[in-house]
Design a protein that fits this description.
Blueprint: E1 2-10, E2 13-23, E3 26-28, E4 37-39, E5 44-47, E6 49-54, E7 56-57, E8 60-61, H1 67-78, E9 82-89, H2 94-109, E10 116-119, H3 141-150, E11 155-160, H4 167-176, E12 180-183, H5 190-199, E13 203-204, H6 220-227, E14 232-236, H7 244-254, E15 259-262, E16 274-278, E17 281-286, E18 289-292, H8 305-314, H9 320-334, E19 352-355, E20 361-366, E21 369-372
Helix pairs in contact: 2-3, 3-4, 5-6, 8-9
Length: 377
Amino acid sequence: MVLTGATVVLPTGTVRDGRLVIDGTRITTTAPENAQVIDVTGHYVIPGFVDLHNHGGGGASFTSGSAEDILKGIHTHRLHGTTTLVASTVTGDLDFLTQRAGLLSELAEQGEIAGVHFEGPFISPCRKGAHAENLLRDPHPADVRKLIDAARGQAKMVTLATELPGGLDSVRLLAEHGVIAAIGHTDATYEQTVEAIDAGATVATHLFNAMPPLGHRSPGPITALLEDDRITVELINDGTHLHPAALQLAFHHAGADRVAFITDAMDAAGFGDGRYWLGPLEVEVADGVARLVEDGTIAGSTLTLDRAFKRAVTVDGLSVEDAVTALSATPARLLGMADTIGSLEPGKFADLVLLDSAYDLKGVMRRGEWVVGPQLH
């Protein structure tokens, strides 16, 4: 297949009236004689989106659903351009989480997801967000190891409050096992955060959210996470979790190479308003905003990454190239998958998103197959 006439966003720059050649599941340079040619003039071709932090969608939960439910949620996000997804859990009983890890790791081994992210239970009760306080626990390395082992090599990331007892040792353990240690749902000081980064933490879980605000005498974790080149910061660009000025602040200090846009989506993403469950907690979704029924705390998002992309360019004023980096290249690199996904280059998987001139989604391809066929008229 050959896509012609598009504005193609490549790592080396944006090419007008470009062409992209796909052979089987991969991008290549030479088109076979019998290749199908599709004219996509007036459209952007960008890499498929990579979501590091996602709890569900399409009415299905990665936290509690069956394998069939999880596949439904994955497909919902693929329809919105997310061709690579890490499935995130929420705080639960340790035995329950090890069971979930087993189920999710099977789907990872089948190539449906890129791995497992454990968000909780090793987080601060002071910054618990939409996590059940009675199930929180300190990050003792033995417990962290239990989850890693249960995921059979598919654990990609663990979010923890590194200031809690055992936090730094757990960061070191994760680093030794090649699992991302993410600082989040934390009440850490600036100094404690620096210590955690030095111990091996490399990600800030949804920066600004569920952590102390930036203060001029108490700079807190936000300052430490933004200033250190070793940290990639997650941002939820849905217009609810972050003021545009906060997003601009993060981009100004970290740059697109250190920003990963995520959804932090729950079941309602791509599905609609109503009542849902996030782990053991009931959630009310109204006007696309998810909040806990018991106290109104924001409970994840209903975001899809095509909306995050469009908002980044049309509201936040980011360049298309920077938005592509934050939605594809940066998370792919963080996952250690930059050799196969995250950019449109020969030899990589044919994972791509087709957008019109208004940045609305008009096609999605994953591994050379159309998930959403090109809608060109």
